[in-house]
Design a protein that fits this description.
Number of helices: 2
Helix content: 10-25%
Radius of gyration: 18 Å
Order of helices and strands: EEEEHEEHE
Strand content: 15-25%
Structural class: alpha+beta
Shape: elongated
Largest sheet: 5 strands, mixed
Number of strands: 7
Number of domains: 1
Distance between the termini: 29 Å
CATH topology: Translation Initiation Factor Eif1
CATH superfamily: SUI1-like domain
Oligomer: single chain
Length: 112
């Protein structure tokens, strides 16, 4: 979701011209008690396989990756971090909620 957009000039005939891009500042990571995460089950577009999604994390990509790794390790399952979401294989909402609670995160459980 990181799209760089050129600033100012759209086209130049100068072969040595360097485009300047505006960088979107990365959001600073909020404290776990100030996060508002959503834990839900999903199977749409995944070939019928069920996954647990965790959405709503506000912070740097590195911190999101670290949280994803922590959840995957403690649940003992696979998964990934894409587009600002943590994807855990299988329906592990209970385990994920327990881990998030112990780590001090605020969340709401959705999806049945």
């Amino acid at each position: 979701m990181n799209k760089k957009r050129p600033v100012g000039v759209v086209y130049s005939t100068d072969p040595n011209f360097q485009y300047q891009y505006e960088e979107e500042p990365e959001a600073e990571t909020l404290e776990p008690s100030h996060q508002d995460l959503r834990v839900l089950r999903d199977a749409k577009g995944r070939g019928g396989k069920t996954v647990t999604l965790i959405r709503g994390f506000v912070g740097t990509a590195a911190d999101l990756e670290a949280l994803g790794k922590l959840l995957k390790n403690r649940c003992g399952i696979g998964g990934s971090v894409k587009d600002g979401e943590i994807i855990l294989q299988g329906d592990v909402r209970d385990k994920a909620c327990d881990i998030l609670t112990k780590e001090g995160y605020r969340f709401k459980r959705a999806g049945g």
